[in-house]
Description:
Blueprint: H1 3-32, H2 47-91, H3 98-130, H4 138-167, H5 173-196, E1 203-205, H6 209-221, E2 228-231, E3 242-245, E4 252-256, H7 257-262, H8 265-280, H9 283-306, H10 311-314, H11 322-333, H12 337-363, H13 365-378, H14 387-393, H15 399-408
Parallel strand pairs: 2-4
Antiparallel strand pairs: 1-2, 3-4
Amino acid sequence: MPILLLLFVLVSVAFTGFGLVLRARQAAHVARHRGAVPPDFADTVSLTEHQRAADYERARLRLGSAAAVFGLVAALGWAIFGYDALYGWTEGLMPPGLTRSVLFLVTAGAISSLLDLPFALLRTFGVEQRFGFNRTRPVAFALDRLKGAGLSLMITVPLLYGLLWLMRQPGPWWVWAWLGLVLLMLAMMDAYPRWIAPLFNRFTPLDGPLRTRIEGLLRRCGFEASGLFVMDASRRSAHGNAYFSGLGRSKRIVLFDTLIAGNSEAELEAVLAHELGHFKLNHILIGLLQTAVLLFLACFAVGWLCRQPWLLPSFGIVHQDDALALIVGMLVIQTAGPVLGIAGNWLSRRHEYQADDFARRMVGAEPMMSALVRLSRDNASTLTTDPLYALVNFSHPPVPLRVQRLREA
Length: 409
């Protein structure tokens, strides 16, 4: 086996094995604490709710472990023989050129999506259905997948043509690729709330006393939004959430109808104050800059790898094409993903604590603590998390730690 391919296999197996160990630790930790509600939450979470959250977490972990093993097998299959075989198939369909390269990449992406489909079905109609969260009908699920695939093709096919054309030009093509991706990222932040999100959900303006209360919060925070909307999330799931989207004048606040149904006005105000904290404390800008820097490094690494004549032979690939070099280069740099993910999660958890503190100053600690507990209970989030598992996997601090900090403040 070529040396680079062997290293890729070893690193992939090691990271997957580490992930399986962490999931096993989390499952065992949750099971040990299933029999009693943590003392700090004994007055707000019943034993039945606590045990349901534990069972839900363990079911998700089992499915996640199965998906990870399957993903490892699929990734190794692609790397060892899949990409070369698929390119040989496209080679027999059309002469060399951009269209052949694009066809290869689109076909590889489509096959990967089909391989992920069984786990999406098990997640939606298995785990989520079993614990009462799923409200998606099979027809709606299929339509969502088809619409998502259509949008993906509309966006990625022109991008692939442009990217592969750049790769055939002399000079540092990856710089222009990075610049194009950054501009696309910024454009999508404006386009998503305007045109893409309405393809999947209905958004209606928020009215009544809750709107008045939220507008008062916005004035206190010095925040301007283009609108307050309620999203019909209950068509697909019982999970509650809220989010901000857009940039500049297109900023909008979206509340899930499931969140409104399950929380008091004070709790909803606290949730939005937390989200406003991310804007006021420049977490959104920091996130954009962080993404731009990581994209720059990724483009540089892929650009350098794609120019190396040894890249494809080191993976045992006999065909030569920029599309093959691109996909193998991306495969190589993805091995750094777990390490970068830990660093990104650390920064994200720090930002969450800061946003909690901002919400405390705006609306008080009690509404924020109440909202966190209610969201945890309604979404069946476990209150007993293995510390190492949380350190590696959680972008948000566990709810008990957030409540403890708010209480101490």
